[in-house]
Amino acid sequence: GDSVTQMEGPVTLSEEAFLTINCTYTATGYPSLFWYVQYPGEGLQLLLKATKADDKGSNKGFEATYRKETTSFHLEKGSVQVSDSAVYFCALRRVADSWGKLQFGAGTQVVVTP
Amino acid sequence: EAGVVQSPRYKIIEKKQPVAFWCNPISGHNTLYWYRQNLGQGPELLIRYENEEAVDDSQLPKDRFSAERLKGVDSTLKIQPAELGDSAVYLCASSLDRIGQGAGEQYFGPGTRLTVT
């Protein structure tokens, strides 16, 4: 079945450091890929998405590129802030599957220190 | 615009007791989802509604879980009786899905954290 694998956290880094969170997936066909962010005490928010190979999603300084050849969708940010501390979830959605159903990874906690 | 509203935010019950969660989706959103998020894991879909019809409930443990979405707006998820393993965060999400445009973005509520003792 479909699955999403993320690097384990917590990832702890200093403000202005470079952030990478690895995400790889297993799915048949061509899923859409997403990154969601969950701040403490809040619901998940869509951060960015990509719907086809080589697409790059970007938002709030975060970027991720849909790499079909490596089945990856790694999240990057060049200079993190303390406010980026949150849990980040990689997810996929198969268009041919249950319409709208998201398959999430386990999440990666990011802690940014001043 | 108000987001997805869930209540209660926290609930502690003893095992074998019943519990219910309520969700009010974003106004106008036709699709509603209930997810369960176990500690340290990503959310897993329990049930999806298109308007008032449950169209995907394959992951809902039907022996103890039930859900309804009367009038295609608010929804209630119930567990009876609760077990220790039901401790989790229950998330509600909604989206506006238009025919021919694919699934819309899902907006999540803050969740209800259930602790079964």
Number of helices of chain A: 0
Percent helix range of chain A: under 10%
Please state the CA-atom Rg of chain B, rounded to the nearest Å: 14 Å
The secondary-structure class of chain A comes to mainly beta
Distance between the termini of chain A: 41 Å
Mean pLDDT of chain B: 92
Shape of chain A: globular
Return residue spans of chain A where pLDDT drops below 50 for at least 5 consecutive residues: none
User: How far apart, in Å, are the first and last alpha carbons of chain B?
Assistant: 37 Å
The secondary structure category of chain B is mainly beta
Largest sheet of chain B: 7 strands, mixed
Average pLDDT of chain A works out at: 92
Largest sheet of chain A: 6 strands, mixed
Number of strands of chain A: 12
Biggest contact: A-B, 21 and 28 residues
Order of helices and strands of chain B: EEEEEEEEEEE
Q: Could you explain how this protein is built, in words?
A:
The complex is a heterodimer of chains A (114) and B (117). Chain A is mainly β and 114 residues long. Chain A contains no helices and 12 strands. Chain A has strands at 3-6, 11-14, 19-21, 23-26, 32-38, 44-50, 56-59, 62-65, 75-77, 86-93, 103-104, 108-113. In chain A, the strands form 3 sheets. In chain A, strands 2, 5, 6, 10, 11 and 12 form a 6-stranded mixed sheet that branches. Chain A has a 4-stranded antiparallel sheet with strand order 3-9-8-7, with no helix packed on it. In chain A, strands 1-4 form a two-stranded antiparallel ribbon. In chain A, a hairpin with a 5-residue loop joins strand 5 (32-38) and strand 6 (44-50). Chain A is globular. The mean pLDDT of chain A is 92. With 117 residues, chain B is mainly beta. Chain B is built from no helices and 11 strands. In chain B, strands 2, 4, 5, 6, 9, 10 and 11 form a 7-stranded mixed sheet that branches. In chain B, strands 1-3-8-7 form a 4-stranded antiparallel sheet, with no helix packed on it. In chain B, a hairpin with a 6-residue loop joins strand 4 and strand 5. The radius of gyration of chain B is 14 Å and the shape is globular. Chain B starts with a strand and ends with a strand. The mean pLDDT of chain B is 92. Chains A and B meet through strand 6 and strand 10 of A and strand 5, strand 9 and strand 10 of B.
